[in-house]
C-alpha cells in the first residue's frame, strides 16, 4: 500500500484507471492461493496432495466470509486506541463501505483533486491478502493435521492474529482507517518513525512463518521425520505453482500502490529483479553445496525472492532490489536445513522461506532504503545511503514485534485446539494417508489405468493391476 497520508477531497470522485488496476490486482492476488495449493501440493507425498491443496482452498472460504462480517472492520475500522486494533463492529458486514471513496486528496490553489477508488475495491484488494496469509501457515503442518481443526484454526487465527497485524501495518493514517496503524509509516510505532512495509513482509510473511513454527512445535513431527524419505511427489506441480505465484505477485506488490502510475511501475520492476536474482542465489548455493541445480531449488528461490522484496519493493532502487533478491535466495537456501539441526518439522519450509525471507527483506530496508526508490523523496535513506542506523533499528523492532506476537498467540491457539478438538490425525491414518482418512479420496486413481474395454478381464491384465496397486501402496507408505 502507498504509505503517504491521504485526506478527504473537496469534491470526491472515482479515478477509473486506479480502480481498474486495483480490482485487477486483487484478482491476481486471489489467483496466488490456488498457485500456493499447486506449489504446496506438489511438495508433499502422493497420499497427502488433496489434503494439502484443500488446506489452501478452505482458507478462501472461511477467511473470505469472516472478512465481510468483521475482518475488514477489525483491520480498518476506527482505531480502538494506540493503533493496535480497529473496531470490529463499526463496519460489520461492510454496511458503511459500500458508498465510500478512498484515496483522493483535496484540491488546492484551483488544481483538480486526484481521483480515488471505491471503498469496495479496497475491501476486495485486502481480503485476498488475508486469505493467502492464512493459507501460507498450512505448509508447516503438512501430512498430519485434522482438516476440521485446521478449518476452525483459520477463523480464530485470522481474527486474533492476522487482522490486528494488518491494522498495525496497512491501516496507515488517513486512508481507509480512522487512525494510523501501529507499525506503518505515519503510524504510532517508535514515536512516529514508522517502519517501511509496502506490501506485507511483516503482516503476512513474518507473521505466517512464525505461526507455522508455533504450530509445528504444537503438533509435533511427522512419522518418520529425519529417517524416511519425504520427497516431493510431483515437481511439475511445484513449478506450475511457483509460476502462478510469480505471476500473481505483481498484483500483490505493484497493486499495493492502489494507483496506476509511476509508483506501481517502479514496484513491478523491483519485484521482477529481486525474484530473478533470488532464483540464481538459491541455485548457486545448491550447486556448491550439493553439486546440482534442482527444479525444486529454482521454484523455492523464486518464492524466497518474492517474499523478501514484498516489504522493500517501493523503498529500494532497482540495484537494491537485485541485492535483496540475491541475499534472500542464498540465505533461505541455507535456512531450510535448520529444521533438521534444530529438530522441528516444518514440512514445506514455511519458516525457512517465509519467516527468514520476510526478515531478510524487512531488515535490508534499513540498509538499502533510498530517496531514489519508486517511493521517492518520501523515503528515509538507509545506512548505505547515509541515513545512519535509525531506520535499521525501526525495521528490526517492527519485524521482531510481529514475530514474537504471532508465535506466542499462535502457540496458545494451537495448543488450546490440540487439547480440545485434537489437531493431529492418528499415527495409523498418517501412515495410510491423510487424503483417504480426512477426505475419502485419493489424488491419483491408478486403478483406472488398468480398466476399460481394451483390457477387459484377461487374467494377465488383472495380475498386472494387482501388482501395480501393491507397488503403489509400498511407494505411498
Protein architecture, described:
- Keywords: Ammonia transport, Membrane, Transmembrane, Transmembrane helix, Transport.
- This is Ammonium transporter.
- Residues 20-444 form the Ammonium transporter AmtB-like domain.
- It is found in: Cell membrane; Membrane.
- The protein has a single domain (16-104, 111-420), classed as Ammonium transporter AmtB like domains (Ammonium transporter fold, Orthogonal Bundle).
- The protein has 15 helices and two strands.
- It has helices spanning 16-43, 49-76, 119-137, 147-170, 201-219, 235-254, 262-290, 295-312, 318-335, 338-342, 350-368, 390-420, 427-432, 434-439, 459-476, and strands spanning 101-102, 117-118.
- A two-stranded antiparallel ribbon has the order 1-2.
- Helix 1 runs antiparallel to helix 6, helix 3 packs across helix 4 and helix 3 packs parallel to helix 5 (201-219).
- The protein is globular.
